[in-house]
Design brief:
The complex is a heterotrimer of chains A (360), B (294) and C (265). Chain A is built from nine helices and 22 strands. Chain A is of the alpha+beta class. In chain A, strand 13 and strand 14 form a beta hairpin. In chain A, helix 3 crosses helix 4 and helix 3 runs parallel beside helix 5. Chain A is elongated. Chain C is mostly helical and 265 residues long. Chain C is 77% helix and 1% strand. In chain C, helix 10 packs antiparallel against helix 13. The chains are: A alpha+beta (360), B mainly alpha (294), C mainly alpha (265). Chains in contact: A-B, B-C. The interface between A and B is medium-sized, with 28 and 21 residues. Strand 1 of chain B pairs parallel with strand 1 of chain C.
Amino acid sequence: MAQIETTGLSHSYQPQPGYPQDFVLKKLDLNLLDGHAYALLGPSGCGKSTLLRIISGLLQPTQGRIHFDGKDVTHLDARQRHVAEVFQFPVVYETMSVFDNLAFPLRNRGLDREAIAERVADVARLLDLTEQLTLKSAALSAGARQLVSLGRGLVRTDVNAILFDEPLTVIDPQEKWHLRTRLKQLHRQFALTMVYVTHDQTEALTFADTVMVMHNGRILQSGSPSELFERPEHTFVGRFIGSPGMNFLRCQFDGNAAIIGDQSIPLQKSYSADIDDHSCELGFRPESCTFSRDGSGIAAQLINVDCTSRRKIAYLDAAGSSICVSLPADQDIPADSHRIRIDPQRALLYSADRLVEESR
Amino acid sequence: MSVAKRNYPKAWLLVLPVVLMVAFNAVIPLMTVVNYSVQDTFGNNQFFWVGLEWFEEVLRSGRFGDALGRQLLFTTLVLLIEIPLGLMIALGLPKSGWRASSYMMLLALPLLIPWNVVGTIWQIFGRVDIGLAGSAINAVGIDYNYTQDALDAWITVIAMDVWHWTSLVALLCYSGLKSVPEVYYQAAAIDGASRWAIFRYVQLPRLRQVLIIAFLLRFMDSFMIYTEPFVVTGGGPGNATTFLSIDLVKLALGQFDLGQAAAMSLIYFLIVLLVCWLFYTIMSVGDSQPDTRQ
Amino acid sequence: MKFRKILPRAHVIFILLPVYWLVNMSFKSNQEILSTLSLWPQDFTLENYATILTDPSWYSGYINSLIYVLLNTVISVSIALPAAYAFSRYRFLGDKHLFFWLLSNRMAPPAVFALPFFQLYSSIGLFDTHLAVALAHTLFNVPLAVWILEGFMSSVPREIDETAQIDGYSFPRFFTKIFAPMIASGIGVTAFFCFMFSWVELLLARTLTSVSAKPISAIMTRTVSASGLDWGVLAAAGTLTIIPGMLVIYFVRNHIARGFAMGRV
């Protein structure tokens, strides 16, 4: 396994890119540590799959370089980079048996028969495929096919990293959970370097040590799942992570309190003074606000209520923005006038979409 | 395809025009042929029953056997050349862009030339006196004349068929190759597959269907070939290139030997049907595994 | 590696050489053809084309051919459409056998049917009409059209039909407004194939005509044997028969790849 570094990586699908919007990747500097599991999370079209294809060597970047363990591999193709990839649609060689599928990469590299049989048996055991080894791979379910394509990466001993391109898209829900646990286990057991591309935050947050949120060809924030949830560095990350995402309300900042309409929310933290008042927003999770019962708080209008088994989610209109409040299912929503109280401890201040750091 | 086909007897009404049209064109003439094949005439529209005599005559005569032998040899050679050649051409074609559509147009060109003009083109092209190929071959010192030498005639007729029909195989295979999703090539590259392994395990399995179609079409059409070789060689020199259809037309329209021609027609038609049915059955047995590709 | 790219080019050259020779010859006088062998006309002439385009017994052949080919294409496609729809959507008594029986007619050697066709169409008074050839060619074009169209129709999900039914479309309206546009390329490809096979066929067309509907290809064969072989005129006539095909190819060039797989891949 290897450490993967990119420097100034940019890519455009246009032959002669001129404008910044021609680029789907914009000067990425990444450092993916050996043995870590990473998730690239972002909406479709954000450039995450392009980044993956550049790492695997299926695509040559327009600018920038990639190093594996310090060695420049920018111009090596997929065959020479020794990476494994699991694609969105499970790729199995349909005319081959499961055994032959797993043996295929080893045969292509000229290993001898016994070594191949041994390796395949090991990997089949690992993935619970031992009983299916003699089956034609065309007969497998989507989930089992995806396991086989993962297995083709695992049998190889020379693999620098395993890349996943939204591997659970076509898998049944119950199989999804099973596969995800399996991946997590494999990662713990073998300390594999893994990069996992997805637009599904649950997948990303449960899978990865480090989640990188991508938007418009840039990485907005990279951190542990809890960091992303608690302290989004960008309003996009706040909105994208969590379900429902973070609420943002326009506010004015007077040095230690956020003022929204006639309400003042004391932030109990100190910030450096020069914040542009016009682009200030107060961010808070639907879980860190409640309905106030004493007449204080921000006036809001109830639009709709969604009940799931554990939480009750209220959609409201407050100070010209729509926000959500998430309550335990047994808590009632006041009948008449609605006012929202925000927990000042867990509210964050944003200016020009960026988190404003507290000064200590 | 989640919704199953519905049982609907009235669908017959939709099929009826086709059935009537084909029945008119196929059944009536076929009955006429059957009728001739069991009768004989001395003119004056007087016919009498001869039973299976014509069939025995055809099978005994040796003439039919010879024509059938030539036909089988021709069809085998043509299939052996055209199928691999067409497949290899398809593998080398560009996948998209203006170059791909130019290739499509150029390859399709021979398919849209009337068959007798195909014959005329090759008749001219191969002639020793005024043809490019004929004179060029003789100029390099090889004795070649398709009107006199049986082997030369065969070479010319086969070259013509390869010229005429390899495009069909190539276009069929090309469309099969287009159906291979790009991600399979990517996976194969990552698995370190060689060019041959990609062909064998990624491309060939997806070409099965079109190769069956190509084989069947080429078998049928080469087995029924008439116009092109007739224009070039007229079946000669001697009987060297007298294939089944040419022989049949000679018999029916040339000698007006209706009974024998009819019996021969039926045997001929049955052979084509039988081979196609056999091949189709064998190929669909291999097909019965669950097909789960997306 | 390089061989893969060379082969298609080599084959295209192989295809073009004989055609080039024909076109080359069509611009030479008969005298030049017989006296010298040259890669391009030494004495360029349009005489051969003038001969054909001014003589009704020549150019009427083209008109006759085009009439029955178009007639056949229209008949074949329009009766094959409902049948293909039935095969792709419904199960009914004998559907599988019927389908194979239809296809088996594609396997019938035209030589077998030449004489019976002559008698059949003579007896109903259609001998030497465009309609006779058009109808005769449905023998192999209708099964083919049903087969190709069935392939294209089966790739359209059956849910579409049901959704339209629920939305209150009558069947004819659904078929013409929704379904036909969805398989438009399939219909185009089918028409292309009908055109192609009817245009290239000679044996039946020649057998069923004598004067007023005689196809160009038959006129060509007659001239070869009778007129003491005017190679220049023959080459020009041949060249002219290639042109309609090239026009048709040009229009379907982007659908050819799919069409040749009969919509089944």
